Amino acid sequence: MNPLKRTAPALLAIAALVSAAACSADPPSAQPAPGRGATDTSVRQQATAGAPSPAATPSSSTPARAAGAAMSPLKAPLRIADITPMGEKVEKIGVGFPIIVTFGQAVKNKAAVESVLQVQAEKPVEGAWRWISDRKVVYRTRTYWKPHQKVLFRALLSQIPGNESAKDVSRRFAVGAANISVVDTKKHVMKVRRDGKLVKTIPISAGRGGLVRNGVDVYLTTTGVHLAMGKKPVETMTSGWMGVTDPKDPLYYKLEIPWAVRISDSGEYVHQSAGAYQFLGRSNQSHGCVRATPAGAKWFYGIAQRGDVVQVTGTKRKLDWRNGWSYWQLTWNQWKKGSALPTAVPTPTPTPTEDEVG
């Protein structure tokens, strides 16, 4: 695997904290990171504003009022700066996708805000919010979303005490096929299931290990449940992440890598192997990425959706839940502890009507 040289415009809103970057030229940050992938072209897409229909509006605003009873009027209305993923007209998303909401300012009364956030699915599953910063809250389901459906997110911001002048916000998502891949780093294969059916077995080569920094072997692929975060048909990868920038250095490299699907903030990808095809299916030789055959990598790139599940097994390096969209690393009970409400509300509001999801 080879690290990313950051040359593209800022594309993808992320939340990450990693001890060592296996591929990235620079450590990830809480700000939108450049070069995240071809599917990340409009993550700043403006949320659709508008009042919710009566069918989706709670019978009263009591939960928000009770949670925010002590909340003083805001100097400026609380607004949403970003919603990830993008809407149904822009992309289809995988069954592991989180809903990431970033506010334009720090949220002081998180319980009041959380109480006015709604998630409605045509095929409901239990879910809960977790605050990962003063400005960012993430919705994750207990089990993966059901595929081939619409999910509606609503933020009834006008119901927050002191925030009545704010506009309510909504976004509708389109869930695509259930693409769930398992990378076995010991058997050197990636098996891809689509809607429960095994559709492809791809020979791979994962991280070889052997470069330890701060007690972490950064050449190992991280074991855990990753999500696809974006993709690019060609990604520029260099040795700069190791501090090697002199072309005369034996460790220096700069490569154009085809069919790159990013699965973490520490720079892990599923991508076409840059030669060395003899190792695919036989041994681990990468710097941490999952290298695949040209045909396998191109096929995987073609079906990849943001939010697709890529589970890596067999290495001693564990994936940190704060590394990109790796929220599935937490158990359900651990996840719910991040809610600001006394008990995380497990059930969605009623299934939207045809007019609402349309």
From TrEMBL:
Q: Where is this region: Disordered?
A: 25-68
UniProt superkingdom: Bacteria
Domain spans labelled L,D-TPase catalytic: 179-313
Q: Which InterPro entries match?
A: Big_10 (IPR041280), LD-transpeptidase (IPR050979), LD_TPept_cat_dom (IPR005490), Transpep_catalytic_dom (IPR038063)
Q: Which Gene3D superfamilies match?
A: 2.60.40.3710, L,D-transpeptidase catalytic domain-like
Sorted alphabetically, the keyword list is: Acyltransferase, Cell shape, Cell wall biogenesis/degradation, Peptidoglycan synthesis, Signal, Transferase
Signal keyword on record: yes
| Segment forming the signal sequence | 1-24
Q: Where is the active site?
A: H271, C289
Pathway annotation: Cell wall biogenesis; peptidoglycan biosynthesis
Query: Which stretches does UniProt call biased (Low complexity)?
Result: 25-34, 47-68
* PANTHER family registered for this protein in UniProt: L,D-TRANSPEPTIDASE, L,D-TRANSPEPTIDASE YCIB-RELATED
Q: What is this protein called?
A: Ig-like domain-containing protein
